[in-house]
Amino acid sequence: MKNSKFSEVQIIKILAEQNQGKKVNEICREHSISQPTFNKWKSKYGGLDVQPLSKMKELEKELSQYKKIVAELTL
């Protein structure tokens, strides 16, 4: 899968522009993205803010560390 040229924080800021009253067409043209991409981002990151996103990333990292510890102990 191709990596996005936008970070998750940038995606959230782009989605926030719609809440400020900009139309989706304008946002997509300004950032050179397609409408299906915008809609996919909206479904994935729609309710998130920058703070909860960073907290979620920390929790995912911690969870992966715990999974690694459990895997090592079971072997």
Task: Report the count of strand segments.
Answer: 0
Coarse morphology: elongated
Main sheet summary: none
- Spell the H/E element sequence: HHHH
Please state the CA-atom Rg, rounded to the nearest Å.
17 Å
Strand content: under 5%
Protein structure class: mainly alpha
Low-confidence stretches: none
Distance between the termini: 32 Å
State the helical fraction: over 70%
Q: Mean pLDDT score, rounded?
A: 88
Question: How many structural domains in the coordinates?
Answer: 1
Number of helices: 4
How would you describe this protein?
The protein has 75 residues and is mainly alpha-helical. It has one domain (8-74). The protein contains 4 helices and no strands. It has helices spanning 8-19, 24-31, 35-45, 50-74. The longest helix has 25 residues, at 50-74. The model has no long low-confidence stretch (mean pLDDT 88).
Task: Tell me the layout of helices and strands.
Blueprint lengths: L7 H12 L4 H8 L3 H11 L4 H25 L1
Helix pairs in contact: 1-3
Would you summarize the structure shown here?
The protein has one domain. The chain has 4 helices and no strands.
